[in-house]
Amino acid sequence: MGGFLGRDILSIADFSRADIEHILKVADDMVVDPHKASERSLAGRILATVFFEPSTRTRLSFESAMKRLGGDVVSFGGLEGSSVAKGETLSDTVRMVEAYADAIVLRHPQEGAARLAAEFSSKPVINGGDGAGQHPTQTLLDLYTIWDELDTIDGRTVAFVGDLKYGRTVHSLALALCNFDVDLYCVAPPTLQLPGYILSQIKERGRDVKTANTLEELVKDVDVLYVTRIQKERFPDAAEYAKVAGSYRIDLDMLREAKKHMIIMHPLPRLGEIAPEVDRTPHAKYFQQAQNGVRVRMALLSLIFGVIP
Ligand code: ASP
Fold first, then answer.
1. Pocket around ligand 1: residues whose beta carbon is below 6 Å from it?
2. pTM
3. pLDDT band at 80 (very low <50, low <70, confident <90, very high)
4. Can you tell me which atom of ligand 1 is nearest the CA of 57?
5. Alpha helices per DSSP H over the chain
6. 136-167 confidence digits (pLDDT tens)
7. Which atom of ligand 1 lies at the shortest distance from residue 228's CA?
8. For the CA of 56, the nearest atom of ligand 1
9. Whose Cα sits closest to atom 2 in ligand 1?
10. Among 1, 162, 214, 234, whose CB has the most other CB atoms within 10 angstroms?
C-alpha cells in the first residue's frame, strides 16, 4: 500500500486495491454527525477549492469534509472574480494558490489539468474532475456506496448506462473495478460507447467489458446499475448531442425484473435519465451516494494531511 501523506490524487489508476480498501475503511470510521463529532484534527489547515467548471456535490462535500474536521477553506468558483479572467495561466494560478493553502482541489475542463497543476505545486493536488478524463474522488465514494450497500464489491455485476464516452466518472470507476472480481457491462448509444483507450486499460488489467444493446435484456442479472447524464458540454457539435439526447430513461417498468437488492447509482446531476418515481424504490441509492461523499473526502483529507496513517 502506498503512503498517503502529501500524496496527489490525480487518477484512480494510481491506486492499488489495498489503497482503495484502506480509504474505504477509514471512510467508514469517520463521524459525520455534528452532534457526535468532536474531532478537529485538521484545525489550522487550509484547503483551496479551485473550480473552473460547475459543481455542486464535489465542491460542497470537500468544503464540508474539511470543516467537519476543523479545517478551513479558501475558494474561487467562477472565472469572473479571479485573475484567470485576465488571462492568467493555470500554472501561474496554481503557484499562487499553493501559497495560500495546504492542499488544492482542482476541477478543470481540460483532461490532464490536475496532473499539470501537480507539477507546479509542492502541495497535494486533488483532481476534482478533468474534462472527460478522470474523477477519482467520485470513484472512491462510488466504491464506498457499493461496499456499504452490498457488503462486497467482488462477485458483482455492474452495468454502466449512458454517456460512457465523455463521462469521466465512468472512466474512473471502470478502471477501479478492475481491482475486483466483477462483471462489467456497457449499455450506451453507439456514439457514446467507452473510448478505446479506456477499453485497452481494462484489458491490460486482465478484465473484459461486455456490451448489451438494451438494458431490458440485462436488468435481471445486474447488482449495480450506474446511470449517467449525457455530457452535453463535451459535445463538439450541438447536432450530435440532439441525436442522442433523451435516448434512455430508467422507469418503474424497466425495473420489474430487477434483483431485490439491485442498487441504482448516478453521480448526479440527473436530467431525464431516471424517472422521479424510481426515487421511492429501495433500488434508488443516488442521494445516499452523494451523501457518502463527505465521509469519503474526510477520510482522504485525513490521510493526505497525515493525521491518519
Ligand atoms: N458530477 C459528475 C461530474 O462532475 C457527473 C456529471 O457532471 O454528469 O463528472
1. 129, 135, 168-169, 229, 267-268
2. 0.96
3. low
4. 1
5. 17-29, 57-68, 90-100, 113-120, 136-150, 168-177, 196-204, 238-244, 286-304
6. 999 999 999 999 999 999 999 999 999 999 99
7. 8
8. 1
9. 267
10. 162
